[in-house]
Structure formats: structure tokens, C-alpha cells
């Protein structure tokens, strides 16, 4: 997925941190001050990035409303019918995007705010596949019981998955002892298996029950 982040120059550091966070989850963000090489014609590169983006993220601040480029970028995305998710940092959506529900962003709760963006997009079926693939990969790489619990709670029963994604999750449950030995993840995993009974036969459910009971790691 290609994501275009539109922002005013006064928050370029915050925009850079948001890009770094989202790129971990398959957003592939374009950020002008980081992604346009020196001696490049800026408007041409911006139009190129806008032309191929699947998601438009305007970071709304007072300076955003007075930025010539931000307003043009927003108008381009709106007319192209790109999926737009306003991110309300210190200003509500305005103009053509005034009626689009925004994600509230609190800089003091940076990770929680960024996660709200990830969660919202992961629930959008037209954009969700690369985001969910990244979350599933992260779950499968859980290196501790706490990781398995935290990532399982964030992932397993929050979203809709493809058949292939469910099979990936099943494989991770089977192969990662940090996932299948921890008591903390049991409820989430049992709920997930119950929601997808055609993928989890009695043999697998009983194996998981016995495996997790034997270890019962916290």
C-alpha cells in the first residue's frame, strides 16, 4: 500500500516519526522532506506520489490550513477519490474533508495515537491486507510470553482475515512456543479458534489446550 502524508513544515519531525511507525506495518509512507532526492523538481515528485497513493493522511494543524501545498494535495486526493483519513493533531477537518471522521492524535500519547491509525486502516477491507500481513508477522515473531499476549490481544479478534491469513496465524500458534505456552494468550486464542471453526479441528484445539495447560507460562 502507498500512503501519502500531507503536513505543514512546522511538524515535519512529528510527521517523520509517524512515517517510521506506520512503515513498520506496511503503509509505505511518502514524506516530501525525506523521500524527495536533492535537486529534484518537487512538484513533479509530489504529483507522482499523489498519483499512485492508496491512502491520503493529512496531518491537521493550523498551519496546514494556510499551506498552499497542503491544500492542493488535499484537493488532488479528494478529486482522485483516494481514501482519506484526516489526522487531527490540533485542527479539525475543514473544507472538502470537513465531513470525514478524523483520528484524534495526541503527541503525548504517540504510540497509542499511531496505533489508532493502524487499527482504523486495518478495518478497511479495501486497504487492510498489507497491514494485517505485517501484524500477523509481528505476532509470529513474538519473542516473549508478554509479546505473545500483547500482540494477540491487538490482532486476533479485532479484524477480518482472509483464508490465507488465518492459516498463517494457525502456523504461528503451532510453531512459536512463546505463543502456545503462555497462559495470558489462551483466552484470545480460544476465542479466535471458535470464530474460525473450519480451520481448527478438534485435534488441533485439543493439542493447543494440552500444550498451553502443560506449560501455563505467565
Write the layout of secondary structure elements.
Blueprint: E1 3-6, H1 12-23, E2 29-30, H2 32-35, H3 42-52, E3 55-60, H4 62-66, H5 68-79, E4 83-84, E5 87-88, E6 103-104, H6 110-122, H7 128-140, H8 145-155, H9 163-175, H10 177-180, H11 186-195, H12 202-215
Parallel strand pairs: 1-2, 1-3, 3-4, 3-5, 5-6
Helix pairs in contact: 7-8, 7-9
Describe the structure.
The chain is of the alpha/beta class and 218 residues long. The chain has 2 domains: 3-122, 3-Layer(aba) Sandwich (Rossmann fold), CATH 3.40.50.10140; 128-215. The chain contains 12 helices and 6 strands. The protein has helices at 12-23, 32-35, 42-52, 62-66, 68-79, 110-122, 128-140, 145-155, 163-175, 177-180, 186-195, 202-215, and strands spanning 3-6, 29-30, 55-60, 83-84, 87-88, 103-104. Strands 1, 2, 3, 4, 5 and 6 form a 6-stranded parallel sheet that branches. Strand 1, helix 1 and strand 2 form a beta-alpha-beta unit. Helix 7 runs antiparallel to helix 8 and helix 7 (128-140) runs parallel beside helix 9. The longest helix is centred in the C-terminal third of the chain and has 14 residues, at 202-215. The radius of gyration is 20 Å and the shape is elongated. The two termini are 37 Å apart.
